[in-house]
Amino acid sequence: MYPIIHLGPLDIGTHGVVDLIGGVVVFIIAIYRVRRGRWPVSTHDVLNIAPYMFLGAMLGAWLVSLLPRVVAYAMGASFPPMWWLKGRDWAGMMVGGSLVGYVYCRRRNLALSRCFDLVAPLVPLYIAIYRVGCLLTGCCYGKETTSWPSLFLPDIHGVWAYRYPTRIADIIANLIILALLLAFERYRAHREEEDWPFSGFLFLLYLGLYSVQRFYFEFWRAETYKLVGPFTWAHLYCAIGIGLATWGILHGWMRGRNKKRGTKCLERSNI
């Protein structure tokens, strides 16, 4: 475990450093994608929206992670001082960042779904880097187990044991999702239809894939806020994500098919 980086008299949190590295990497790649691709935003837009999306994502992550604590506290659970300042949640990060992006795109009259497709591959990349910080500091650790695929890993208190490799699994899963999104994006670029099957599909695909893998790996995690039985609050958020992604993909697909049929009928009527 390396929770603290010692630089002379300074003690810097490792997770904060990794977060900063992830943010810088994602920002640079976002600029690169805007300059190389045909996206409805400019470099100026990225420079303007980046700090607000970051703040929105962090605020959303904090608020959503606070919700189960408030419910547990209302039901009589005890927490250490300043417990309301601790924790982040992926679902809150997505909601907060997406709301800020939505407002910005509407105010600037930008193609909303295309902008979300632009951001889609950046999210799993950032989370993969973020989980490196979790691995170094020991947070988000897995339950103790002797079954496959357990590894000898520490928890946040520095206790080493054979555990489910939650952080490593999340890193691998997000890198696989990143590869799938980039492969699909490249495949789509070679089709006649620029936004096949529809604009926004890439973002919805990410939301669905991440929610599915997180729903499964949530059973591996040790420190979780239980909701009902073995299910946690994260399971609820993932179920909502899966539902929204499935509905969005089906709705977009059917709308695209109906649009094609309408175009064909119009062409036939003009013959």
Number of domains: 1
Record the strand order, biggest sheet.
1-2
Number of helices in the DSSP assignment: 8
Radius of gyration: 21 Å
Write a compact overview of the structure shown.
The protein has 271 residues and is mostly helical.
Key descriptive features of the protein:
single chain, mainly alpha, two-stranded antiparallel sheet, two-stranded antiparallel ribbon, globular
How would you characterize the overall build of this protein?
The chain has helices spanning 14-36, 43-74, 90-107, 112-119, 122-137, 166-189, 201-217, 233-269, and strands at 4-7, 10-13, 151-154, 160-163, 226-228, 231-232. It is mainly alpha-helical. The strands form 3 sheets. A two-stranded antiparallel ribbon has the order 1-2. A two-stranded antiparallel sheet has the order 3-4. The chain has a two-stranded antiparallel ribbon with strand order 5-6. Strand 1 and strand 2 form a beta hairpin. The longest helix is centred in the last third of the chain and has 37 residues, at 233-269. The radius of gyration is 21 Å and the shape is globular. It starts with a strand and ends with a helix. The model has no long low-confidence stretch (mean pLDDT 87).
